[in-house]
Structure prediction request, 296 residues.
Amino acid sequence: MTKVAFIGLGNMGSGMCATLAKAGHEVKAFDLSTEAVRKAEEFGAIGAGSIADAVEGADVVVSMLPAGKHVHQVYFGEDGVAAHAGKGTLFIDCSTIAVEETRSAAQKAKEAGFLMVDAPVSGGTAAADAGTLTFMTGGPKEAFDRAKPLLDVMGKNVFHAGDAGNGQVAKIANNMLLGISMIGTCEAFNLAERLGLDAQTFFDISSTASGQCWSMTSYCPAPGPVPAAPSNRDYKPGFAVAMMLKDLRLAMGAGDDVRADIPLGNHAQQIYSRLDQDGYADLDFSGVMKRLRGEI
Ligand code: NAD
Prediction:
């Protein structure tokens, strides 16, 4: 049994926190929202009234926060985690934030005498609730080895990607590829349909030919071929345009830092940015199909 302080009980964190508590760990849960803390108590966590309260006596701190500024504030702000955690407490940040913000957080943790790993996730709220996330972890091997048993409870795949920040690198590079491949898949289905080839027939051929990819076989943006895909429920997410745009922006920012040439990633960002500006932030990211069809 590990004593865990869990900070950030939103869409993702609430399910992850519940999974840890149900597995028998002693979890003290904190969020700025008292309602979120109350819900965590229903799942067996111990509600905490402050970060100091949550981290008192904890072996490990797990956080799931919106952005880098929240992560830095929670860990290193006045009355933050680093100010109250006991010696040897391990920090595991599962938020998706910029690579540089992750690396500077790990450095600040090191200077304060703590080990910290970045462990962003792939998989949405359903995977968070079911404990089937994929974790991409960055940080020293000894910190990863300590984090892994807890990550194994919350996830089905746990990878060590290398040093601090490499978890975020894996996440944003993967999601950039996903954004690009989804747009390409939408274009292919739209072209085939306009030329008289129905979606199911094109799927049957292309999913066993060289165009095959996850965006097609697991998440087909044309309604019909993959029943569980958001395209069959009017593109209700799933994985929203706003989320894809966040990850593409992080990828483009990190790419600028190292002067990586990313023409298609940039173009994908523009396409999702336009959907976002036009009021479709909450549409599933495969909803690019609706735009190509001229429906939105
Ligand atoms: P969310 O906005 O639902 O939850 C974030 C929670 O953090 C909120 O409950 C908020 O009150 C809390 N919070 C913010 N500042 C805080 C502070 N200073 N102290 C304590 N609590 C604080 O976000 P989410 O959808 O759960 O996503 C969390 C992270 O996971 C993000 O970085 C996101 O990019 C990433 N992610 C989300 C999904 C998804 O499908 N939602 C999938 C993969 C990764």
Q: What stands out?
A: The beta strands are 3-7, 26-30, 46-47, 60-63, 90-93, 115-118, 121-122, 133-138, 155-162. Residues 124 and 239 are 7 Å apart (CA to CA). Residues 166-194 form the longest helix (29 residues). The radius of gyration is 20 Å.
